[in-house]
Amino acid sequence: MAVTEPSAVTTAHEGILHRQSTRESAARTYARALPIVPVRARGLTIEGADGRRYLDCLSGAGSLALGHNHPVVLAAIRKVLDSGAPLHVLDLATPVKDAFITELFRTLPAGLAGRARIQFCGPAGTDAVEAALKLARTATRREGVLAFTGAYHGMTAGALAASGGAPEVRVTRLPYPQDYRCPFGTGGPRGAELSARWTESLLDDRKSGVPHPAAMILEPVQGEGGVIPAPDDWLRRMRALTAARDIPLIVDEVQTGVGRTGAFWAVEHSGVTPDVMVLSKAIGGSLPLAVIVYHEDLDVWQPGAHAGTFRGNQLAMAAGTATLAYVREHGLADRAAVLGARMVGQLQALAAEHPCVGDVRGRGLMIGIELVDPAAEVLTAPGPPPAAPELAAAVQRACLQRGLIVELGGRDASVVRILPPLTLTDEQACAVLDRLADAIAAASRAFRPHP
Ligand code: PMP
Predict the structure, then answer these.
(1) pLDDT score of 448 more than 70
(2) CA of 382 relative to ligand 1 center, distance in Å
(3) Are 443 and 393 in contact (CB under 8 A)?
(4) By the number of CB atoms within 10 A of the CB, which of 41, 295, 327, 426 ranks highest?
(5) CB 229 within 8 A of CB 361
(6) Is 46 helix (H, G, I), strand (E, B) or coil?
(7) C-alpha 84 – ligand 1 centre gap (Å)
(8) How many domains does the chain contain in total?
């Protein structure tokens, strides 16, 4: 039997990483913090080319509702491959697509389900955001967009503008409510109330300088912004004030959808029915797929208004149908709610032990741990200590050394993000939290903040 020399394995792994660093773009992202070379994966576990195993709580940036290579997903992909169906069909009708739409529509909030239209977009969340903005502009014949502090909607021009970049696009930025670093210094319902009032006054004050907008776009839980759940009351308020002013409400559920936050769609927590929902990531069952679903009254754009060659990925639609059905049939949203609440509780206990854990928050299995520099507390005005991005990076590295993959997010990349598959077992949750606790303890011991 041929036995691979450990050194040869190490060399192959290191060789790949080295070639990546010399050939791939300086703009590469996840690859910088996670120097691993995945070769096999199943569920929560990834195996690297160096033979090491990792528990993956990044889950393809929140795309893997069922973890890696779930059997129902693989079976759905194989079925299409074996059927002889064409893999490239532009946006033509196929049985695979028909089944996907049927399953997706079945899950939609009741207020939208009966009167929804769907547009298949280029296969990235950002393209679906562009489509949503374009649709709203076309339907309202207005230009400007209301978006929120801390938002992330993607990397193309309109989506980037809504996220705080690309200032040439007209975006009015409004305060997203948050407890820990509340811009009004109050947090809680009072902070959310002030955020809503500011929004309302900008829309109604003739001298606010904000023209009547084409849309409001928001995430029900900000993911990249640092795992900040919107209060349900505030979301209902945004719905009411946009509806009263005939402003389409676009809810970006790219990351929060398909059970992640403890409801199938995060808007269900508040009972809000958006005019447009932007969906991607988990709806493709690990393959690229992005759509917008919107109220039929908005469907006034012209044929070809949002074209694109790759809008008919049959494998992604089949994988997505299998994923949506599995999450629905197995009640995985409820499971995410229960397990997520338990994990947040355990992490809050951890925060009591470590002053560098400033805040633990989340909804369902979308969890964030904000790391701060408690030593700097005395130097600052009232409010939370400053963020500790270097400590967060050290925790991420310490996690990786312990075989745990986590993501960083938030304004200063100081929020450790946990996005496990919704299929996470109790034992796996314990293993994740053990490794994380150990990593936080080790990194905080070694951490000496700059004076
Ligand atoms: N919206 C949200 C809420 C997201 O989290 C992301 C990706 N993190 C996007 C849009 C953009 O999706 P993509 O990276 O597929 O373009």
Answers:
(1) no
(2) 34
(3) no
(4) 327
(5) yes
(6) strand
(7) 32
(8) 1
